[in-house]
Structures are given as structure tokens and as C-alpha cells.
Amino acid sequence: MTPVVLIAEELAPAAIDVLAHDFDVRHVDGTDRATLLAALADADAIIVRSATQVDAEVVAAAPRLKVIARAGVGLDNVDVPAATARGVMVVNAPTSNIVSAAEQAIALLLAVARHTASASASLKNGEWKRKQYTGVEVQGKTVGVVGLGRIGVLFAQRMAAFGTRLIAFDPYIQPARAAQLGVRLVGLDELLRESDFISVHLPRTPETMGLIGEKELATVKPGVRIVNAARGGLVDERALAEALAEGRVAGAGIDVFVAEPTTDSPLFGFDNVVVTPHLGASTAEAQDKAGLSVARSVKLALQGEFVPDA
Ligand code: MLT
């Protein structure tokens, strides 16, 4: 019987081509739980992005499952222990979209600094308003990077070209590496106190959830602008909305939400907040890289071959 590969979210066509010759490739909407569980009955592999929750129930619903592939960086929507307990391999594409994610954070930061989204909406609405949309330059400003992993480093390197002063909080990076990047390592308290812009670049774990919440937002430099293109919930949405309402935070660029997909957030009511529906990895280049990488891993796994690290 031809092995079944279930694709639960949008995947680059080139990736599907890699699989179509050898496998029975089927598509399902991973956010439609009942359909997903039914489709798993004879699946040998499942490929997801960030919207499909691959939890213990999903693993249990797929008695033939051999591999779970996440076409992206994080694995926070995959219950890896549940998969491992069943002997199901989990693969991802850890570097596929790091440039796209860093560029998205920068796009949001600049859009927040210059009111790009609201000015665009206003002009398209028939208004020619210039005074209301006076922004700020980023040159000379202090940019606080929370998390200097692969994406945080790419973000910092690019922000350096804007003539910013870079500080970062990351308990795991070697000070010499930070110095090499021209970044001064500080504690989270100092970063919150000093930054004109803060951008978060951390995975979603029990430790990082709500890292920037009510208490932290009470200590920020007044007028700070905050960007989260990493994971929903790292910056608490309700606490951020309160800080925006009080004027302590001057703006925010948010690509990710605590529950996704969503069309409802306390942040949507603010003119000075730019929001996007988790588009950090949504570029042609990143999707090709992520899709091809996991498609190759799935093919090797289902053919019983060694799967090298992506
Ligand atoms: C990732 O973790 O790489 C992205 O969030 C994937 C996605 O865009 O779904």
C-alpha cells in the first residue's frame, strides 16, 4: 500500500512535487479538528506549519504514523514527548525562515515608527493627513533585543545598519559573541528601562510565556515601541493593551497571538498597533526552504533511510 502523507496546512508546490511521485499525498485543513482526526486514520506522515495542534490525541488517532514534520522553525505546536513515546519521528526546518522572520520584525518596527499602516488606511479612506502621522527615526535609538538566537542575531545585525544602539537580554549567549555583534548584554530589567524599541525573539516555552507582562511593562521607558514577531503570548496582549491605553507604550507591531488563528485581540482597537496574521515565515523563499526541507526528511523517513539534521 502506498504510504499516505497528510498535508495539514499550506505547503510550497515544490515540496509537494518531492512527495507526489512516491506517496499518496492528501490535503486536510489541520484547524478542522474532526476532519483532521478522521484523516489521520491511515496517515503515515503529517506535515504542518503553526496552526495545527499535533497533540497526544492526534498521535493516538494515527496508528500508522511514522513521522510528524513541522515546516518551520519552532515545535511548540507538536507534542514531541507524545510522539517519541509512540516511536514517531519529529522533524522540522530550523533555519528555513530565520531571515524572513528577522525581516518581518524589522518591517513591523519601521511601520510602527512611521505609522505606515494607519496612514495607508487613512489615505485610502480619502484623507490626506500628514501631521497626525509624524513618526520617529530609529537612528540613534536604543533597540533592546530579547533573545539573541538565530533570528535575534539576524535582526540585530540588520538593525545595526540603521545606526541604533543595540542591547540584548539572553542568559545563554557568550558575552564575547555579543560583543562581536556590537551588542551589549544586559539584564531584562535594564533592557526594559533603557530601550526605545524592544523586539522579542524567543521560542514559546513555559518559561518565556508572559515574559513581558504587566509587571515588566510597568518598568519600560515611557514611549517605548514593542515588536513581537516570535510567538504569541511572550508579550502579554492584555497587559500590552493596558500599557498602550495609558500611553506608556507608544506603539506595537504584533505578528503572533496567544491563540491562533484569531480575529479578536485587545490590541486590534489601537491605531498605533500594526498587526499581521503570523506572516513572519510567509515569504516565497522561506516557504520553499521549509517545505523542501521537511518533504525531503519525510521521504527519507518513510523510505526507511537515515534522516540527517535539517
Ligand atoms: C515557524 O515556526 O517557523 C513559523 O511560525 C511557521 C509558520 O509560519 O507557520
Q: How would you describe what is shown here?
A:
The chain is 35% helix and 16% strand. The protein has 310 residues and is α/β, with parallel strands linked by helices. It has 2 domains: 112 residues, NAD(P)-binding Rossmann-like Domain (Rossmann fold), CATH 3.40.50.720; 178 residues, Rossmann fold, CATH 3.40.50. Helix 1 packs parallel to helix 12 and helix 5 packs across helix 7. The longest helix is centred in the C-terminal third of the chain and has 19 residues. The two termini are 28 Å apart. The mean pLDDT is 97. The site of D-malate has 9 residues, from loops. D-malate (MLT) binds next to loops.
Largest sheet: 7 strands, parallel
Strand order of the largest sheet: 8-7-6-9-10-11-12
Strand percentage lies at: 15-25%
Element order: H for helix, E for strand: EHEHEHEHEHHEHEHEHEHEHEEH
Share of helix among residues?
A: 25-40%
User: Which ligands appear in the coordinates?
Assistant: D-malate
Radius of gyration of CA atoms, rounded to a whole number: 21 Å
* Uncertain spans: none
Structural class: alpha/beta
- First-residue to last-residue Cα separation: 28 Å
Q: What is the global morphology?
A: globular
CATH-defined superfamily of the largest domain:
NAD(P)-binding Rossmann-like Domain
CATH topology of the largest domain: Rossmann fold
Overall tally of structural domains:
2
Number of helices: 12
CATH class of the largest domain: Alpha Beta
Report the strand count: 12
Overall residue-averaged pLDDT value = 97
The appropriate CATH architecture of the largest domain is: 3-Layer(aba) Sandwich
Family: Belongs to the D-isomer specific 2-hydroxyacid dehydrogenase family.
Pathway: Amino-acid biosynthesis; L-serine biosynthesis; L-serine from 3-phospho-D-glycerate: step 1/3
GO molecular function, one term: phosphoglycerate dehydrogenase activity
Function: Catalyzes the reversible oxidation of 3-phospho-D-glycerate to 3-phosphonooxypyruvate, the first step of the phosphorylated L-serine biosynthesis pathway. Also catalyzes the reversible oxidation of 2-hydroxyglutarate to 2-oxoglutarate.
